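Notes on consecutive records. When two proteins share a document, each keeps its own sequence and its own token line. Never mix them. Below: protein one.
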Amino acid sequence: MLRADDPLSLALLYHLNSEPWFPEAPVPGVVYEPRYKELAPAGAARRLPRPDVQSTPLALIRARRSCRAFADRPLPAATLGLLLGGAYGVTDALETPDGALLGRAVPSAGALYPLELYVVTRGVEEVPDGLHHYHVLDHGLEPLRLGPLARELGDCLLGQDECAAASAVCIVTVVFERTLRKYGARGYRYVCMEAGHAAQNLCLLATSHGLGSICVGGFHDAKLNRLLELDGVAEAALYCVGVGYPAE
């Protein structure tokens, strides 16, 4: 039995029990569609100036769409390096009360940076196909398992082969203790937010270089963790982003 004053285990218990849910059939009477909240009578909202759609950041945000078909076209190694560095790489040196540390491309609770990036490559120039770990300090790829992994990865991703067919699939993992030791159970929220920041960085950078991207949150946790050789407790997969040239 977990103790109420043990927030670390409580957060991990939630994570381990949030495996994909597969409803056997649609719930009768339930409509799955976007909904919008309106608090004032129709037409009472104060209108704001329309944004400048020509601004570069907004143009990238508007252009980003989920890509579900990737071309069989090599991805330059330099482009992959740019994507990984912009997603979660070192950006500058920060001075903190505890001394200097290396800042990253995302906001992080307590500047603790609990995430790690693993990359499954398929047709990246100068990089052998297989599984790699992004070494943030050296800005390089550490080979972990070489050889074609698209089919095995697709099985981990609930058969979402469109993601497994990307030139590179970035798997974002979290080392829980880095953040939860300071923030307790609430730290679980923070690591999820941070993963979202890193994924959005990756998607927008991909868009800026004519690439497509797709974000995947549904996967077999145990299978994907085994592929990465993680125990799923101290460190576990949290999010996936596939990138490559769109088929069209």
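Protein two starts on the next line and is unrelated to protein one.
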Amino acid sequence: MAEIYYLEVSILEAMWKIIKVVPADKIDRVREGIEAIMETYKQANPNPQAYMDACKLYREGHGDYIDNLLYATSRKLHLLLLTADREFIDFLKEKGHPIHNIATPDKIKQAGSI
């Protein structure tokens, strides 16, 4: 069985979007979802070098710092990063960063994991 990890900052990023579209009377459902994530998955914590590596990616031209931090943390903790963001993957390739730690939904589906 696979272990799934999340970063606290991912919940924060989701909340920025959720508060724009979820009506106030439905926000309790969001809490339930957050609780489910926290109870079901493991929290990964970026180390200081992951923060610095994310800054480097930002300075190289990828403006989404949270994506950068997710990638850098996955590299430092030797975790697989699941993303559908092809532009980010192309950016990493173009800049010469390894992508062997990245999986896309298509790749997982082809491998029979879904």
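For the record: The longest strand covers residues 5-6.
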